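Thread: quick sanity check before group meeting

JM: Hey all, I'm pulling together slides for Thursday and realized we never actually wrote out the predicted structure for the chain we discussed last week. Dropping the sequence here so it's in one place. If anyone has concerns about the input, flag it before I start.
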Amino acid sequence: MIEFRGAGPAEFTERLETVIGIYTAAMNPPAEQISGRKAIMRNHGTYPHFQCYFAELRESSPGSPALETPRIVGFAYGFRGTPGQWWHDVVLRALTERSGREAANAWLGHAFELAEIHVHPDYQGKGIGRAMIRTLCAGRRERSAVLSTHDQPTAARHLYGALGFQDLLTSFVFPGGHEEYAIVGRPLPLP
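JM (edit): ok, ran it. Output follows.
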């Protein structure tokens, strides 16, 4: 059985090796990017109103005894975006250029930024990602939720659309990058 358990910044940092393992299995990044991603994630834990949930496997199989130590098979975290944060500032600038300051502030002026949502490939397609997003966004006081995802017809892109996220920017390339992303958002709360 999969259960979702909240974790604060200290536990998130303590479990960073496990988190990076799931991220690596799910995203298959180049090996040289992993240490940088780990540093970024560690820094995210210091952001205002940081919130994380772990998807934990509590039993090995139906009818089997519960595992002594639950195994983390997915994680999702986010925080309130504020000026001075790299992603926030880059996206705010691009959205302002594309849609104007009023629209950019409406989406990012008081937003919950879903920074990472990953499920180990062995457990994908079972509704874990959807449940983590709903759990992570429940009770948030921000007026919107925003995130970036590869601008391709992926399972993640489909999931965000099914949850009511709309495209704010498409074919967006972050400074120093080469991959195209979609920046998506939706008003909170989630239904």
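AS: nice. Residues 2-187 form a domain with the Aminopeptidase fold (CATH 3.40.630.30). The chain has one domain: 2-187.
JM: adding both to the slides.
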